[in-house]
């Protein structure tokens, strides 16, 4: 059971927009800790996608965005492409556990 | 090119020990805090351990506390994970990840921006 809760899977057709939710509690997202998102393509290490809730590293297209409010955060991907098919993880810090924490991951399928 | 490369994984029996290494290139490892993160086969990411630049802050996940120890040798630009009393549930790909600290509009963000390809640890008799 992950500290941060994500849906196991989401799907969308090419060109569509999908969102992936990440729900925490008062010890992590609700305590003001930021959320970061990572993309993991099959057989590869994770890659930073969004840092600090809604900031994109250089090279990440602006069709990818993030947001956070209270104990929840979300990742949005618009203009879906086949190459977006991957696992996505949210990550934050939990003060009660004194630990970096991840969501369980969401598998995005492009139909 | 900025990168980290893990090594030291392999097959070990339950109760055994392994020492993982992470070599940094393209940047000065001593200027960054570092994490170890693992991923069991078919499972999600799990944070394992954190060490600050000066070793003043060291944290381990409850699942490995008392068995694993993170350390660093800044002179060798290297990070380590000493793994003792290994269990079957420690079987995973172990990633070394650089912790970036970035200030944006007076907010400081701590995140992992450089990841290695990982080294595989298998614990089995």
Could you characterize the architecture of this molecule?
The complex is a heterodimer of chains A (111) and B (125). Chain A is an all-beta fold. Chain A contains no helices and 9 strands. In chain A, the strands form 2 sheets. In chain A, strands 1, 3, 4, 7, 8 and 9 form a 6-stranded mixed beta sheet that branches. In chain A, strands 2-6-5 form a 3-stranded antiparallel beta sheet, with no helix packed on it. In chain A, a hairpin with a 6-residue loop joins strand 3 (36-40) and strand 4 (47-50). Chain A is globular, with a radius of gyration of 13 Å. The model of chain A has no long low-confidence stretch (mean pLDDT 96). Chain B contains no helices and 11 strands. Chain B is globular. The model of chain B has no long low-confidence stretch (mean pLDDT 96). In chain B, the strands form 2 sheets. In chain B, strands 2, 4, 5, 6, 9, 10 and 11 form a 7-stranded mixed beta sheet that branches. In chain B, strands 1-3-8-7 form a 4-stranded antiparallel beta sheet, with no helix packed on it. Chain B has strands at residues 3-7, 10-12, 18-25, 33-39, 45-51, 58-60, 68-73, 78-83, 92-104, 107-115, 119-123. In chain B, 0% of the residues lie in helices and 58% in strands. With 125 residues, chain B is mainly beta. The N and C termini of chain B lie far apart (39 Å). The chains are: A mainly beta (111), B mainly beta (125). The interface between A and B is medium-sized, with 27 and 24 residues.
